Amino acid sequence: MNDKYKLTFDEMIAYLTKKNIQFNITSEDEALEILRTRNYYYKLTSYKRNYQKEYDKFPYGIYMHLEFAYLVDLASIDMNLRYTLLEMCLDIEHSIKVRLLEHITDDEEEDGFTIVERFLDLQNKTVQSYIGSMGTNASYAKKMYDRHHQKLPVWVFMECITFGQFVRFIEFYYKNFATDITYYRKLHETIRYIKNIRNAAAHNTPILMNIAEPGTAKKTKIASDYLSQVPNISKDARNKKLKNNRVHDLVLLLFIYSDYVTSSNMRKHTFENLTSLLSRCKRNKSYYQKNLALISTYKFFESIINHLKL
After folding, report:
1. What is the β-pairing status of strands 53-54 and 62-63?
2. Among 38, 150, 284, 287, which has the highest number of CB atoms less than 10 A from its own CB?
3. What pTM value is reported for the model?
């Protein structure tokens, strides 16, 4: 299919049929209704990347053992996953900010203003250029910005910056101020991967679209070290799974959550969500009996979640 021209809904179904995607569970009429009202073609079909193609007799490639209903089910699971991941990222962000502000407050040599000025100087930014959008009438933080933008304390700065800006501040703090080196070193090594997941979840980008594909990424030592703690995951499985970027980032998110989120209520809520998500994955387990890669990926994350017991 040429992505540069628009398909009608009937042409979408015809193309899926040509690629051997079946309509035995969900009929073509039901699929048309789903594509019209519940999900859109590109997102829904992105999950087909988790299925193998047969090329021997079909030069253009056809999918093997793939029903349209399987794609719908994966899309539903992925939606639940994104909601859970976004909550986890928000918990991590909140918990780190609490600890960071504790450390800054306890630092007798820091007044809470100088650290912001120094950070902005290193970024070659002014307060106005860095967070000026907070001063617009549409911003929920306008009053906060109007009151403090001439001289910005770090506790207000934390409420005004984006997550990407927060990542840069963490790296700045680690290199220049941190006394609890271990706490901030792990964040320095991992926070950008948490950002990947946060951005994908917040922008409703499919997480599972190629979650079972063999990857070529270079695994990080910290992710490998974390996984070595899980008794049911072999070194070979660890090395293979971490080559997939999405798997790698999700692994770090789970372990960073376990290490950095200390609120018992947050942890209990997240473990309940993750346990519920694992159950949801098995609701239509017959759909995935022939997809050994997806089954393996499910068991991989099930082992991690059961090991952490958030």
Report:
1. antiparallel
2. 287
3. 0.91
Angle at 243 between CA 281 and CA 16, to 5 degrees: 55
Record the tokens describing residue 125, joined without a space: 């930014």
* pLDDT tens sequence across 53-105: 888 777 778 998 999 999 999 999 999 999 999 999 999 999 999 999 999 99
Q: Closest by alpha carbon to 76, among 176, 208, 202?
A: 208
Q: What is the DSSP letter of 67?
A: B
- The residue behind tokens 């068991």 is 299
Let me know if 100 is exposed, middle or buried by CB neighbors in 10 A (0-12, 13-18, 19+): buried
* Main-chain phi, psi angles of 141, to 5 degrees: -100, 15
The token duo for 263 is 């609120």
Contact (Cβ atoms closer than 8 angstroms) between residue 170 and residue 184: yes
Structure tokens at 22: 């079946």
User: CA 252, CA 224: separation in Å to the nearest integer?
Assistant: 9
